[in-house]
TrEMBL record:
BP GO annotations: glucose metabolic process; pentose-phosphate shunt, oxidative branch
Binding site for substrate: 210, 214, 248, 268, 374, 379
Key words of the record: Carbohydrate metabolism, Glucose metabolism, NADP, Oxidoreductase
Listed Gene3D superfamilies: Dihydrodipicolinate Reductase, domain 2 (3.30.360.10), NAD(P)-binding Rossmann-like Domain (3.40.50.720)
Species in which this protein is naturally found: Kiritimatiella glycovorans
Annotated EC: 1.1.1.49
Protein name per the record: Glucose-6-phosphate 1-dehydrogenase
Basic and acidic residues bias (residue ranges): 1-13
Catalytic activity: D-glucose 6-phosphate + NADP(+) = 6-phospho-D-glucono-1,5-lactone + NADPH + H(+)
Gene behind the chain: zwf
Location of region: Disordered: 1-25
Amino acid sequence: MSKRTADGEHRTYETGLHPDPSVTPPDDAVMILLGASGDLTRRKLVPALFQLYRSGLMPGRFAIIGVARRPYDDPSFRERLREGIRERCAPQDEEDRCSEFLEHVEYFRGDLEAPDTYASLRDHLDRGGDRYPSGRLFYFSLKPDLFIEAAHHLREHGLIDSDSAAQAGEGAWRRAVIEKPFGHDLESARALNRALLEGLDEKQIFRIDHYVGKEAVQNVMAFRFANTLFEPVLNRTCVDHIQLTAAEALGVGGGRGGYYDRYGAIRDMLSNHLLQLLALLTMEPPSGLDSDAIHNEKTKVLKALRVDWRGDASPAFCRAQYAAGVMDDGTRAVGYRDEDRVDRDSETESYAAVRLSIDNWRWSGVPVFVRTGKRMKRKLTEVAVHFRHPPLKLFRGVECEGAHCDVRGVQPNKLIFRIQPQEGIFLNMAVKRPTLPFVVEQADMDFSYAGKWGRELPEAYERLLLDALRGDTTLFTRSDEVEAGWSVVEPVLKAMDRTPLYSYPAGSWGPAEADRLFQCSDLPDECLCRKTGLVRAWHNPQ
Ligand SMILES: NC(=O)C1=CN([C@@H]2O[C@H](COP(=O)(O)OP(=O)(O)OC[C@H]3O[C@@H](n4cnc5c(N)ncnc54)[C@H](OP(=O)(O)O)[C@@H]3O)[C@@H](O)[C@H]2O)C=CC1
Ligand SMILES: O=C1O[C@H](COP(=O)(O)O)[C@@H](O)[C@H](O)[C@H]1O
């Protein structure tokens, strides 16, 4: 059975992608995992590969070579991976299948800062003859400081090669999957793009953003462009504002404190995952479903995104750090600065909220509020589109449910994309209660994956690894998209030192100061809340 903790994280997953006869397994490949003794390989990558294997979606012939410095040999490395598979996929009665899969795995010990390692790896692959298929996928699961160096050495030693399939013959493709973080600002992202593009073509580079691989994120596009009803109202005429929340109940303990303390919420979540999600929600319809058509539209809207600065009285950005507190399940959580591998005087934000505007024809004047944080009340990722009031105040004087009323009688519609957990889509609307007095109250029309298909959704890594093996870049991030994302947050990063760092108790919805992003006393006349009295506030589910 699959398990879900109270905050919806650490779930095991048994179901995997449902293979379809029309989906052919990818071409034969050898996957070289750089940084294979690390957490990501054990917890996410190898369990996802096992799931693909289980679903018959691995190549007919494949090998997985893990590279790192720690002194494993093949059997001890396989044992480490077997534990990860057990934890995540729970294959109680599938130990044999697991062993069969692990037969394809081997360990190659080496220091990726030393050029010799690349030379020996190349020789090892060459000597392997038929054991290793000619298609090669290099997965950068390394500490990010090593990305540029590794790309450089791989190229120098002929392990990656631009357009090598054309040069070396059919089947001899080369690809690189690059983990996040993709740089730490615009300049470093550009440098990393340059380094990768020296050795590979754009089509050979797979910059992973696992949010894009989530089913409920992919569904945003289906919902918008496969229905007639909704797309025509997603614009400045009908939408009052958009809110995007990515709250996590987990803190930064568990080994990632060192990384997180250098990056913080803006770089870790907002500059990539949340902007990708926002791009899918707000982009124009692509001309087709091919990779370039989608990336072109996403890039266009990312380039139209700006931080909505309006002066000090209405800040556009709020950052904060969690203090000790009590979580929803009653456990006590330590404060951020007391977490393992975090600087005791750290000024890194574990929470960030920002108000954005989209300066294009469709969205001009519609504010977008985005927030993300660790140790918040519970795990929740959702996008809420808040619509305007209907033009006529027909129901103003009519009674409505106390908690749901606003000054105009009924609440405007909300369309909520629940990305996780309990993935689904909810349309909140006003309806007449079937009673004698005319009472209007809010009700939901909802779609949930669990309700319709009754099964856990596959992990994003499964889908993304499969696509990388098939050479499909659609769900990966293109270089100009990454740079556009960094350009959006660049002004915030520059203003960081002058922005106060607030505090919020672990287990809350974040700092009270983040409410000031909605303040509109100083905003121009077109500000809706001044005209209509509509109260904007963070949408915190009960
Ligand atoms: N863990 C997670 O949940 C997530 C991770 N990521 C990203 O994935 C990547 C890997 O993360 P994670 O697995 O957590 O990190 P870890 O620190 O757990 O692992 C890092 C890996 O890099 C290897 N490594 C470091 N230096 C060298 C070197 N000089 N030569 C060879 N190998 C080296 C380490 O092996 P050894 O010490 O044996 O040499 C280890 O296998 C990072 O870019 C991270 O940002 C992204 C999203 C989530
Ligand atoms: O990339 C990252 O994502 C996770 C959150 O991912 P989710 O799929 O559990 O929502 C986040 O915890 C981590 O800090 C970040 O690097």
